[in-house]
Amino acid sequence: MTLDDLIIQTVTPTTHDLGDFKVHRSLPVKGRTMVGPFIFFDQAGPAQIGPGQGIDVRPHPHINLSTVTYMYEGAFLHRDSLGTQQLIEPGAVNLMTAGKGIVHSERSPDEDRVKASKLSAIQTWLALPDAIEEMDPAFEHVAANALPEIEGGGARARVIMGSLWGETSPVTTYAHTIYADIQMTPGGRIAIDASADERALYVSGGDAMLDGLMLTPQTLYVLRPGTSATLSSLDGGRIVLCGGEAFTSPRHVWWNFVSSRPDRLMQAREDWEALRFPLIPGDDQEYIPIPQGRPKTVSYP
Fold this sequence. Notes:
Largest sheet: 7 strands, antiparallel
Number of strands: 27
Strand order of the largest sheet: 1-22-19-24-17-14-13
Order of helices and strands: HEEEEEEEEEEHEEEEEEEEEEEEEEEEHE
Structural class: mainly beta
């Protein structure tokens, strides 16, 4: 058996050097915008941040999607235009559903800025189904100890979203979604079943093999539908499993906006330029301006 028997696409992320840390972006890329509802997949860090420094993702808008922030190390303070102020720490989930429109920021908390700190996170966007793209915006935080974990065979997996290995996460899903954080000890093994329409594995650290075939770190592997396989590790590794139902209608992406309708992206662009989006209480003095030039959307399928 070869990797081609198990994998239909291998995605090497685009790496963006932001000075203090690097971001590895696997979705969207040419030829593959979505895996299930996942339409954006970033690994941020790992990074060392010196005393007196911090990360400041200034206020910016979203529409027609949910953002999912999952921390490996470090912390972010999330604020949004609903009035939410929520610290997220390792193992917890921030799910922000933009719907018809939301503005948020993510910044290093003050207590982390006065000391050396670390930052490592997986940040994803999930497209909303057509019928609820324009729902009211919402936010939920689920603590690490509320997420189910399964352990055995030298592997520990936290179910971030959806149902896997007989456990179900309490995090809201709007389409069938699977999302898990898998940590492997040396020699560990765990089964990856074929229950979702679309699935992908991302090796965020260490090493991993699929049915004995070595996978490359910082690489997204889109699995062949219907194929079961065993994930293992020689020296220990950390792997993300994500996916869910295949969307049948196209999704269009431009900047921070996702929609089934290209004209909706233009409307959102105009609304942000005109400052018609709501403001964030307590974080309304600056914002990320709209990119210049006419939007060039990426579409799927």
